[in-house]
Structure formats: structure tokens, C-alpha cells
TrEMBL record:
GO terms for molecular function: dolichyl-phosphate beta-D-mannosyltransferase activity. It is a multi-pass membrane protein. PANTHER family: DOLICHOL-PHOSPHATE MANNOSYLTRANSFERASE SUBUNIT 1. It is found in: Membrane. It comes from Neoasaia chiangmaiensis. InterPro entries: DPM1-like, Glyco_trans_2-like, GtrA_DPMS_TM, Nucleotide-diphossugar_trans. It holds the Pfam family Glycos_transf_2. It comes from the Bacteria. GO terms for cellular component: membrane. Keywords: Glycosyltransferase, Membrane, Transferase, Transmembrane, Transmembrane helix. One of its GO terms (biological process) is glycolipid biosynthetic process. This is Dolichol monophosphate mannose synthase.
């Protein structure tokens, strides 16, 4: 019977997903049609979607042994989902696709064939080579985010890739497995991290593909995703000696400064004294930082429901102590050397490190 073969798969398709219940069955049908000449399987890696994505995959798996699901509880993120999906496979070739049907599965057999035939180790489905198309990106804003990300990524890549932001690629599993110990597994752009990690002799090719419009569900691309992407680039620029989570935490802190200044000025215009306006600005900044860190920096440990308020109170107290340490260190250094700029910068660094330590050990443990 179709889907009941006991032979091992030649190709595993890993699909990281969240709230894609309407796209699961159409995707299985599309893969069945495109990969009719292959022994294949698909692994949906679901981050505990509330819409029942994982359960639907299980229902399909009851009648089709080519379909599997890994449901992750308490862990989130596309890159880490891809890593878990690939490591669950024994197939010599692994492909990664989004779960929203925007990737053109019809090019997948040719991508996998290049690896099977020994012509390439990593094949990227590109929207930006001749014959490719990115018309599926909805709206001018998404086009701008994507193009900016591509230009930034290309400045770091040791090889030529027209679409390093692609989420659709095929790779020799042994190549991926060898790179895993050096992958951070954070963020949403696993291909870029992989291309920056594999040895220079890895044979990388691109193949034209169409990025189709989404038919159901909602896009996961947002400014917050791009902020996390910038953090990953910064980590690479720093030679990986600063963890991505700390870099994103620091970037969120910069956003908090903007919120602080805006809220303080607004409070001043409403007639509050400088001291009270400063207090309003500080509280608004701490609240904004907490929310952004909860949704972005610690997205895989996000606090919800009854855990939100205790976490916020600990964060508020920790940041208050961090501000005291910031001022104290800055004052001590200023008294010693008289350089207010250096003293203030040193105090700010101490404050950021302190707040990060509190956040990582007490709030988002």
C-alpha cells in the first residue's frame, strides 16, 4: 500500500511548524505527488501549536508511515526545530521546508538528486537566480526586510549565495551532523548559520525556485525576527565569543532607552516634574524590555499565564538593583579618574551584565 513501505527513506523532509494545521494535509499530498520516484518521509517539528497541528499529523501518520511528528513542549524556535528534525533522521539526504506551502516542492527532487549523484553537498532553493521568483512575499515591508537581511548576510558569507535567507534547502545529512556542534540553534535563519559553519570545501549550489503566496495561516516574519537575526550576525562578527542571547538582550536594552526617552518626554509635556517623568520613563522602559525579552530573547522559555507576573516582578527588582550598580560603579570610577564618559560607559556595561545574569538565572531559568 502507498505510504506503508518498510524500506528506509532516501530523503527526509523536515518541516518546522507552528499553527499550520490548515496546511499539513495539503503539504503531505504535495510531497506525495512531487516525490513519487523517491523513498521519502516527512517530519513535522511542531512547537506545541494550540491549533492542533501535531494531532492532525498523528492522525495522518496512522495511515501513512512516511509521516512523523516531533511535538516540542517548552522549546520554541525554527533553527532548533530544524536541528531536532534532522537528527531524528537516518536518511542520507535531508531537506528543510517551511510548513506554509510557499516553497515549491516540485524542485525538491532535482535538489535531492544533485546530492545523491555526488554533485553537491548543499543545494539552496533561491528566489534570486534566473528563473526564481519571490512574488509570494506579501507587502512592501516584507520585501524590504528580506532584501536588507540578504545584503547583511552576504557581507559575512565566505561563499556566493544569492538567497542566504532562504528557508528551503537540501543537505547531505553527514555534512549537517558534522556542523551541529557549532550551530547556536537560535533564531529563524538556519541556512545562513549552516553556510557560515560548514568547511569551505563544502559544495554549495543554488537552484531557481518560486516563493508562492501563503494560502492559510499567518506569516512568522516580523521586526522582532529581524532583530534576532541581527543578533546572530553580531554573534558571528564577534567570533562567537558573545552568546546570541546576550547580544539580543543588549539590543533590546537599546530599544528600552528609546522607550525611556519617549515616555519621559511625554510625561514632562503632561506637566510632571523631571523626577516623576524620569520614574515614568524608567518603568515604561523596564516593561518594554521585559515584554521584548519574553517574546524574543527568551522566546523558547516564554512566561505565560500565572508565571508572567512573578517573572515581571523579579525582573523589575533585578533591573532596579542593576540601575543602582550602574550608578554606583560609574560614580566610583568618576571619582577615581574624572572621565565621565568612560565612567558612564563602564557603569552601563556592568548594568547590562547584571540584568542579563538576573534574567537568565532567575526570570527565564
Amino acid at each position: 500500500m502507498p505510504g506503508q513501505a518498510l524500506l528506509p527513506a532516501d530523503l527526509t523532509v523536515v518541516v518546522p511548524c507552528y499553527n499550520e494545521v490548515l496546511n499539513v494535509r495539503p503539504m503531505v499530498d504535495a510531497l506525495s505527488a512531487a516525490l513519487s520516484a523517491w523513498r521519502w518521509e516527512v517530519v513535522f517539528v511542531d512547537d506545541h501549536s494550540p491549533d492542533g497541528t501535531a494531532q492532525l499529523v498523528r492522525d495522518i501518520a496512522l495511515t501513512d508511515s512516511r509521516v512523523r511528528v516531533i511535538e516540542r513542549i517548552g522549546r520554541r524556535g525554527l533553527s532548533s526545530a530544524v536541528i531536532e528534525g534532522v537528527l531524528s533522521s537516518a536518511a542520507p539526504i535531508v531537506a528543510v521546508m517551511d510548513g506554509d506551502l510557499q516553497h515549491d516542492e516540485s524542485v525538491l527532487p532535482r535538489m535531492a538528486a544533485r546530492i545523491r549523484d555526488g554533485e553537491a553537498d548543499l543545494v539552496v532553493a533561491s528566489r534570486h537566480v534566473e528563473g526564481g521568483d519571490n512574488a509570494g512575499l506579501a507587502g512592501r515591508w516584507r520585501h524590504m526586510l528580506s532584501d536588507a537581511g540578504i545584503r547583511l548576510a552576504q557581507t559575512l558569507l565566505p561563499c556566493r549565495l544569492t538567497d542566504p535567507m532562504s528557508g528551503f534547502f537540501a543537505v547531505r545529512r553527514s555534512v549537517f551532523a558534522a556542523a551541529v556542534p557549532r550551530l547556536a540553534g537560535s533564531g529563524f535563519k538556519i541556512l545562513l548559520e549552516l553556510a557560515l559553519t560548514v568547511p569551505r570545501e563544502t559544495r554549495i549550489e543554488e537552484m531557481a525556485a518560486t516563493f508562492r503566496p501563503r494560502l492559510a495561516g499567518e506569516s512568522k516574519l516580523s521586526p522582532l525576527v529581524m532583530l534576532q537575526f541581527l543578533g546572530m550576525l553580531a554573534e558571528r562578527i564577534c567570533g562567537n565569543w558573545l552568546p546570541l542571547r546576550f547580544i539580543v538582550f543588549a539590543l533590546v536594552g537599546l530599544v528600552g532607552i528609546v522607550v525611556n526617552i519617549g515616555a519621559m518626554n511625554g510625561a514632562r509635556l503632561s506637566g510632571l516634574s523631571f523626577e516623576h517623568a524620569q520614574l515614568v520613563g524608567t518603568i515604561c522602559a523596564i516593561f518594554a524590555n521585559f515584554q521584548l525579552n519574553n517574546r524574543l530573547t527568551y522566546h523558547d522559555r516564554r512566561l505565560k499565564g500565572r508565571r508572567w507576573w512573578p517573572g515581571f516582578l523579579v525582573f523589575l527588582l533585578g533591573c532596579g538593583l542593576g540601575n543602582i550598580a550602574n550608578i554606583g560603579v560609574a560614580q566610583m570610577l568618576f571619582d577615581a579618574n574624572g572621565y565621565w564618559t568612560r565612567s558612564s560607559a563602564a557603569g552601563a556595561v556592568i548594568g547590562v551584565v547584571w540584568n542579563y545574569a538576573v534574567a537568565s538565572t532567575l526570570v527565564w531559568r
